[in-house]
Specification:
The complex is a heterotrimer of chains A (about 325), B (about 325) and C (about 280). With about 325 residues, chain A is an all-alpha fold. Chain A folds into 2 domains: about 70 residues, no CATH class; about 230 residues, MetI-like (MetI-like fold, Orthogonal Bundle), CATH 1.10.3720.10. Chain A is built from 12 helices and no strands. Chain A is elongated. By secondary structure, chain B is an alpha/beta fold. In chain B, α4 packs across α5 and α5 packs across α7. Chain C has one domain: MetI-like fold, CATH 1.10.3720.10. Helices cover about 70% and strands about 0% of the residues of chain C. The longest helix of chain C has about 35 residues. The chains are: A mainly alpha (about 325), B alpha/beta (about 325), C mainly alpha (about 280). Chains in contact: A-B, A-C.
Chain lengths: ~325, ~325, ~280
């Protein structure tokens, strides 16, 4: 198992290297230099000042050298300085990251908490009408624009004071109740569509598993219906659901960016949008790099969870 | 006979709803099983022999399957009238099953010992620790080397023969009265087959367990069984003791089955016989005898009237469902 | 005569019907709309939906007819969705076939790039590309198309690889067929089923991505109506005029659902392995 994890961790290195390469060169494709952005049109600088500024912005060096320097910096957690405020980018991102991560995680938990039980229950009532309903629901879930749901929620609940607390983000540790209250509807907007998808996958997977011979064996042992469903069937049926969940965390992460905007939540999504409107490229560069890294790591974690739950993939520990 | 009857199946009917119509998989099947006896149920695939035995424990999945008629008396109780909760106390404890394919019949994500211990904990109220110890003991008994270590393995780490041993250990863990073995050796190598049969034979004799051995292999029957029911198209066409079956088969289908076994002592000039034609479509059963289209002895009556089971010499345990033997029945 | 299989699949038919209705609406809207979608009318600002005024879906904050704007916006959304999918499919399939057919180093290289592209959540990638290229309709097509390239590459490569080892390809080769002939005569036609399903699903995702981008102000720019930017401007007034937000959203859901239904139905029809799994 440990060998598997190490192997997967090592495989992240070339991927993240490639990610950083794409981000760096895409940003360099933007017309105009960072210095020009920074200077704007109002300020005039003397030629001496310009040379000094070009040195600070690194525009006196060839691009590959700049890339290597940037890469070296971000490995040390230095993502440069905001073009608008002049403040270092990384601390700003770090302070906003917990909200976005919590939002994504919360929406994931909600989706699984709604989707898996509904999927199990619906799989126990097996008929063509149920197939049809679960299929339509799943497809509808895929079709819901998260930002529209969010807007409708804001519209529907703004009349009820305190249902959706606005204002400064309160950490979960500081005030769990207020924190959850704040994030409940945003998370629901992100996750509800995915819940429908999870439901459909769980149902299909359960239906397939319930046909298996080992379910008959379990029944022949005289096990209670509950044990047959929750021990024997679910342990197998959950595996494809884990895979689907892994694939779709990107959808939840992306959803968080838009939903932060609708609910005015100060996360990194909102920061990145602000940066885009302001053409603040160091921030954009940093946020994209960090979200992509999170996504890659989350996928790695799902793979590991899958491997842990599926003994057939744990090939290297037969001696245990 | 004087032998104690432990299971009495009477008039069992099971049907399956399919897109094309209703399949009569089991059609008025009756048989008795005595204590300590090994009863073979023989027939081609699709003749209803497995469904018959799933029906005994109400393991036929609904939909599409449904038991429509019959009684299954065990300990003076009709299992078919039992509630789910009642029959659950029978399954695994008093009547246990071994299935055909040990790979798909074991849960791939649950450790071997846990799967064996489940029934022990449920039916005998053992603690987790005791159940594990008993599971390991059972694994040793059925000849798994390094049982302590292998108990923590998962099914995919076992070979086919070892998996079937695990199935046997699982089935016999609670010392059941009846063991139903559904083609236990079909999915295994020939060399392993004999070992598995040996284990079943020894353990059942040791614990006085009655066995229903479902198979299409007459070699297995010869090896294992005391009495035999031959099934064709959802019905029992002949029942006999093992000697009667091999030395005095009556039904043309049984004779056909026996002739299709290659024999070492057979004259090489002689052909190996096979039964011509295919098993009938269970949705569109012929009105008469189901075997009539393939039967070389078919008479006029066979085409329009299905034969009842004629008992030979008034012996209820020796019957043939064939018009050819009507007279023997009449003359008693 | 046997009915085409698509007509026996209820799900696919539902999808097809929805899409056809939209196509009819787009054709109608190209020469007739209830109102001029960009004409402002200060006297009829934020009117609620009513049959009397002819504004069935009400008017927005500039007095423009919401229904007319949705109709106009549907062609914008659909054109972007189709173009982006075509862009992604053409380049992706070319790369996938190249990788799958030639194998070896090229395969490795192309698939590594695809892996890297998959490390970006779709919407994040779209936002990033829009930030780089600048906000306009053409760039939306490019941004979504870029996301699709690795997806199509992976799928067509997989299809080619699974076909390459097939007996009939070996048979064709032993009969002296050349690479190009095998590619066009055998590999391409047989790898179409998964690609067709992917096209349908990509069309649906493109509409969602486009509307998200436009909603954030990074996509189609006003005054050109798109469902996403209609929702964006509706945010300021939706408390008093909910219809400005509800109807464009419903338009998005229906069309996206249409493509999803079609794609799901097609998967049943085209992929025999999945036919028993609902």
């Amino acid at each position: 198992m440990i060998r598997y994890i190490v192997k997967r961790l090592l495989s992240l290195i070339p991927v993240l290297f490639g990610v950083s390469l794409i981000i760096f060169f895409l940003v360099r494709m933007i017309p105009g230099t960072a210095l020009e952005m920074y200077m704007g049109t109002q300020v005039e600088a003397t030629p001496e000042q310009m040379v000094e500024l070009q040195r600070i912005f690194g525009e006196d060096k060839p691009v590959p050298v700049l890339y290597m320097e940037w890469l070296g910096d971000i490995i040390h957690g230095d993502f440069g300085y905001s073009l608008r405020t002049g403040r270092p980018v990384f601390p700003d991102i770090l302070s906003r990251l917990p909200l976005s991560l919590e939002l994504t995680l919360f929406s994931l938990v909600l989706a699984l908490m709604i989707g898996i039980p509904l999927g199990i229950v619906s799989s126990l009532h097996q008929n063509t009408f149920g197939d049809f309903i679960s299929r339509i629901t799943g497809l509808l879930g895929l079709s819901l624009p998260q930002f529209w749901l969010a807007a409708l929620m804001v519209m529907a609940f703004s009349g009820f004071r305190g249902w959706i607390p606005m204002g400064n983000y309160v950490g979960f540790i500081v005030d769990p109740l207020r924190n959850l209250k704040m994030l409940f509807f945003p998370s629901l907007a992100i996750g509800i569509g995915f819940a429908a998808v999870v439901m459909r996958y769980t149902r299909n997977s359960m239906l397939e598993v319930l046909q298996q011979d080992y379910i008959r064996t379990a029944k022949a042992k005289g096990l209670k219906h509950r044990s047959v469903i929750y021990t024997h069937a679910l342990k197998n049926a959950i595996l494809p659901v884990i895979t689907v969940t892994g694939f779709n965390t990107g959808y939840l992460l992306g959803g968080a960016i838009v939903i932060e905007e609708v609910f005015a939540l100060p996360g990194i999504g909102r920061l990145s949008l602000y940066a885009i409107y302001q053409r603040d490229y160091p921030i954009i560069q940093a946020v994209v790099m960090i979200i992509a890294t999170i996504f890659v790591v989350v996928n790695l974690i799902t793979d590991i969870i899958y491997a842990l739950m599926n003994p057939r993939t744990r090939l290297d520990d037969t001696t245990r | 006979m004087g032998k104690e009857i432990i299971l009495h199946v009477e008039g069992l009917r099971t049907e399956f709803q399919t897109e094309r119509g209703i399949v009569q998989a089991v059609n008025n099947v009756s048989f008795v099983l005595h204590r300590g006896e090994t009863l073979g149920i023989v027939g081609e695939s699709g003749c209803g022999k497995s469904v018959t035995n799933f029906s005994i424990l109400k393991l036929v999945q609904y939909p599409p399957g449904r038991i429509t008629d019959g009684t299954v008396l065990y300990n003076e109780k009709d299992l078919l009238q039992c509630s789910e909760d009642e029959i659950r106390t029978i399954r695994g404890k008093h009547i246990a099953m071994i299935f055909q394919d040990p790979l798909t019949s074991l849960n791939p994500v649950i450790k071997i010992w846990v799967q064996i211990a489940e029934a022990l904990r449920l039916h005998q109220g053992m603690s987790k620790k005791d159940a594990k110890a008993k599971a390991i003991e059972l694994l040793k008994l059925i000849g798994i080397p390094d049982a302590e270590q292998r108990a923590d393995n998962y099914p995919h780490q076992f070979s086919g023969g070892m998996r079937q041993r695990v199935m046997i250990a699982m089935a016999l863990s609670c010392n059941p009265d009846i063991l139903i073995a559904d083609e236990p050796t079909t999915a295994l190598d020939v060399t392993i087959q004999a070992q598995i049969l040996e284990i079943i034979k020894n353990l059942s004799q040791e614990h006085k367990t009655s066995v229903i051995m479902i198979t299409h292999d007459l070699g297995v029957v010869a090896e294992m069984c005391d009495a035999v029911c031959v099934m064709y198209a959802g019905r029992i066409v002949e029942r006999a003791t093992i000697d009667e079956l091999f030395y005095d088969p009556k039904h043309p289908y049984t004779i056909g089955l026996l002739n299709s076994i290659p024999r070492i002592d057979q004259d090489s000039e002689e052909h190996l016989h096979s039964i011509l034609g295919a098993p009938p479509d269970l949705i569109d059963l012929p009105i008469g005898c189901p075997f009539q289209p393939r039967c070389t002895h078919a008479m006029e009556i066979c085409a329009y009237k299905s034969p009842p089971e004629f008992s030979m010499g008034g012996d209820e345990s020796r019957t043939v469902a064939c018009w050819l033997h009507e007279k023997e029945h009449a003359h008693g | 005569m046997e009915k085409p299989r698509i007509l026996k699949n209820g799900i696919a038919i539902m999808g097809l019907v929805i899409i056809l209705l939209y196509i009819i609406m787009i054709i109608v809207s190209s020469f007739w709309l209830p109102f001029d979608p960009s004409e402002m009318d200060v006297k009829h600002v934020l009117e609620s939906p009513s049959f009397g005024t002819g504004h069935f879906f009400g008017t927005d904050e500039f007095g423009r007819d919401v229904l007319s704007r949705i109709m106009k916006g549907s062609s914008v959304s659909l054109i972007i969705s189709i173009s982006a999918t075509a862009l992604g499919a053409v380049f992706g399939i070319m790369m996938g076939i190249w990788a799958g057919f030639l194998g070896g180093r090229w395969d490795n290289f192309i698939m590594r790039i695809a892996d890297i592209m998959f490390s970006f959540p779709s919407l994040l990638m779209a936002i990033f590309v829009m930030a780089v290229l600048g906000e306009n309709t053409y760039n939306v097509i490019i941004a979504i198309g870029i996301i699709y390239i690795p997806q199509f590459a992976r799928i067509s490569r997989g299809a080619i690889l699974s076909l390459k080892s097939n007996e009939f390809i070996r048979a064709a080769r032993s009969n002296g067929a050349g690479n190009i002939y095998i590619l066009f005569r055998h590999l391409l036609p047989n790898s179409m089923p998964p690609i067709i399903v992917q096209v349908s699903l990509s069309l649906s995702v493109a509409i969602l991505l486009e509307s998200s981008l436009s909603f954030l102000g990074l996509g189609v720019q006003p005054p050109e109506p798109s469902w996403g930017n209609m929702l964006s401007s509706a945010r300021k007034v939706m408390m008093i005029a909910p219809w400005t937000a509800i109807y464009p959203g419903l338009a998005i859901i229906t069309l996206v659902l249409g493509f999803n239904l079609l794609g799901d139905g097609l998967r049943d029809i085209l992929d025999p392995r999945l036919r028993n799994v609902s």
